[in-house]
Amino acid sequence: MKIEIETLLSEVSGRLAAGTLPHAMILEGAGAEDAAVRISAACVCTSSLPDKPCALCTACKKAFARIHPDVHIAQGSGSARSFHVDEIRFIREDAYVRPNEAARKVYLFLHAEDMTESAQNALLKLLEEPPQEILFLLVCENAKALLPTVLSRVQLYDLGEGFVEETDETLSADCEAIAAALTGANEMDFLALSAPLIADRERFSKTLAALSQIFFGAAKAAACGEPGEGAAAILCTSLPLTRILKLVSLSRETKEKMNANANHALLVTSYFSALYAARFGL
Q: Which helix (H) or strand (E) holds 195?
């Protein structure tokens, strides 16, 4: 199924709470690796907050830094047949060992399409009879490179072209400007940035997705003590993590309202107003 990353994260958070998360997922397309890391963090997150990952707890920080003991990352080198069966054999044994810290274990396969046929067949046995509280995340550029028997046992999520098309430089620059303006512009100047989006629903949808990426990047950088890049770096040095997380939450809520066909003009205006209020912790 084709899905935007923020929508997928919201679905995963809800299914974690309900105990209905599938045991195996394929993430295909731009941004798939970032989405997989975020899902991994959500699975080991220890926060009582409803939205996961919280990015605040120690478990989330370890997952984002890719050092959590219950998130095993396996990968090929990016060339054909570079992902060998020996790695899968190790995972088949390790999957039955209890988690070290979290309630579940996650196995993240980067460049999954590079798995040899033997490796895929070895993984197939795990997919057919998965241990309890295990999530297999397969990240690939083209899921069709995997065996049909593997595809039939894994839920596929097509992330398409990700948040923003790489060729849309104007949109990317506009989103960076909006995010950066949160820390410097006065309220009227900031709200004025929403005007072009009120008349263009599709552009607002892309802008919302891009801002979500920037805000989450800032939250991840702040939580891990990293400098961040672009507007994310400005947000990191200007706002505390709790307020950056509020920006992430507001973007997710706005996307859900947009999917529910809320009044577009009102939604855009209220979103920008809420972002500006969140800057001050309101």
A: helix 195-198
Nearest residue to 119 (alpha-carbon basis) of 80, 166, 158, 168: 80
pTM score, whole prediction: 0.67
User: Tell me: the pLDDT tens digits for 1-56?
Assistant: 578 777 888 889 889 989 899 999 999 987 788 889 989 999 999 988 788 888 77
Query: Helix 201-224 to helix 230-238 angle, to the nearest 10 degrees?
Result: 60
pLDDT tens track for 137-155: 999 888 888 999 999 999 9
CA distances from residue 30 to 139, 142, 162, 234 in whole angstroms, order as listed: 10, 11, 5, 25
Domains within the chain, CATH numbers bracketed: 5-158 (3.40.50.300), 169-279 (1.20.272)
Q: What does the alpha-carbon distance between residue 101 and residue 103 come to, in Å, rounded to a whole number?
A: 7
